[in-house]
Specification:
With about 140 residues, the chain is α+β, with helices and mostly antiparallel strands. It contains four helices and eight strands; from the N terminus they run H-E-E-E-H-E-E-E-H-H-E-E. It starts with a helix and ends in a 5-residue tail after the last strand. This is PPOX class F420-dependent enzyme.
Length: about 140
């Protein structure tokens, strides 16, 4: 699949399952909300203390299966190498992430406080591979 087509799919479809790897080689799967940043990178928000962040700090390979809200139907798989951006550097990215997916927040001060309280990070990656080209 063309990477530009994958980015376009991500602009309007945000439900995904993220794959990372446990230290013993077992897969670890997490439901996530994914967006696409201005540079065309896949981007998610999660807690600094999450298993997926711990896994990615050790092995930065990542894959997502992104679906439509209907779940059954069109989907894509994207892959890349993750970068983790922690607070305070992540705050502006977290605001952009929210805006791109959900629009304006009713109280940005409350949102920022929640991001700090939850120790949120941004996980982002260049999409190096995407597919499938056919469904069925």
């Amino acid at each position: 699949m063309d990477l530009d087509k994958a980015c376009e799919f991500l602009r309007s479809n945000h439900r995904a399952v993220m794959l990372t790897w446990h230290v013993d080689g077992r897969p670890q799967l997490s439901p996530v909300t994914v967006g696409i940043d201005a540079q065309g990178r896949a981007i998610i928000s999660t807690r600094e203390t999450s298993v997926k962040v711990r896994n990615l700090r050790r092995d930065s390979r990542v894959a997502l299966c992104v679906t439509t809200d209907a779940f059954f139907g069109q989907w894509i798989q994207i892959e890349g190498t993750a970068e983790i951006v922690s607070l305070p550097e992540a705050m502006d990215l977290l605001v952009s992430y929210y805006r791109d997916i959900s629009g304006e927040h009713p109280d940005w001060d409350d949102y920022r406080a929640a991001m700090e309280r939850d120790r949120r990070v941004i996980v982002r990656f260049d999409i190096t591979r995407a597919g499938p080209d056919v469904h069925g």
